[in-house]
Amino acid sequence: MSSKHSSRSKTGTNIVSGSWVSESLVRIPAGLPKLPVENPFSEKYDNNQWLGLRKKAAVLILGAIHRLEKAHYGGRHTGNLFVFSLQFELQKDGEYTLVEEAVLVRREGASRDGKKNGVPYKRGAASEVLVHYIDDIQGAGAKMLTTLTQLGKNIKLGPIGELGVLEGGSDRFAGIDMEKEGGKLYLSKKTYLKDIEAEKILQRAGRRRVTVDESMMEPPKEGEVDTSLTEEYGAACGILEWAVSFFWKRRVFYDELQRFIHTPTCRHLRNAGLVIFRMQQEKERIEIRSLLPEGRAVHFYSDASRKPKTKEVRKRTVGFWGDKTWSHEKGGEWNPVLFKTARSTKLHDHPYSAEMEALKQTVREA
User: Fold this and answer.
1) How far apart are alpha carbons 304 and 366 in whole angstroms?
2) What separation in angstroms does the CA of 344 have from each of 110, 238, 341, 353?
3) What is the pLDDT of residues 116-141, one digit of tens each?
4) Angle between helices 248-257 and 266-281 in degrees, nearest 10
5) Sheet of 123-132: strands edge to edge?
């Protein structure tokens, strides 16, 4: 997946741009309802508008990748499969789960039954990760209550293309850079952040770079709030919202910083600039191993480590998504994974505090 940045909100010193993009590539879900000839939503669309929607839907090849313009990339609801009204009906029906981020993990060794060629075999660590984001398609699913039955028992997604990350090489998908070195997989957001002038953010904050610690994350003190920084601070946090996805050792900083969007201080702006600066240079190694015998929960490890003082870590819930359309037959095994973010943090006593805790939450299989 590729995208081009276009500035949504210019700051006083033109330091950062928002998370809007001029174009974005998305995969069309294979289970999209077919639009009927007659307009069932006359209160929302007139006949000409409905005809326009049907023409747009007619050129969509289900399961294929299409280019969208004026997309909002990386926002809170970017991964929503359909518009809100349809999502509500899906969830109310009790047979569907809202998909925000879908990921395929490829690993060598045994399959989910713990065997290879019928013989017990050790499962290897993840060697590749394929990120698959799903966006609403121009409102084509709006209030499609009469066609819910066409979705069947599952939300079926189209065929997934293989993303090859070879040894010593790199690839990019959904705004995430992937590299493989020494048989290990590394993720980064360097391309996404390459045009962000973090040094200017730090200069604007008025102090030299320092390490972000707990004291720097404290709420504003009396007389410390500087409302002239509101626009810049909000833009910096907007960039971080998307930049820190998948990067747990930085996610905890964003969670704290975004609390002060309406009460910014030089200290917090400096923290935001520092996190962006570090992420422009860092990449994070990940290792993914299965937990439950059924293979429906995984344990995430990262090589992130922090000082004992900074032990607050974002938790993520991970589970396998049982949809046969995800199967991949070309060598190895692709495991479908559903990501959800828990809105909580936990203190870890281990110094490697960014190592993810195993969350044994089972995702109901199809």
Assistant:
1) 34
2) 34, 20, 9, 15
3) 777 777 656 545 444 433 333 323 22
4) 160
5) 123-132, 101-109, 333-347, 312-320
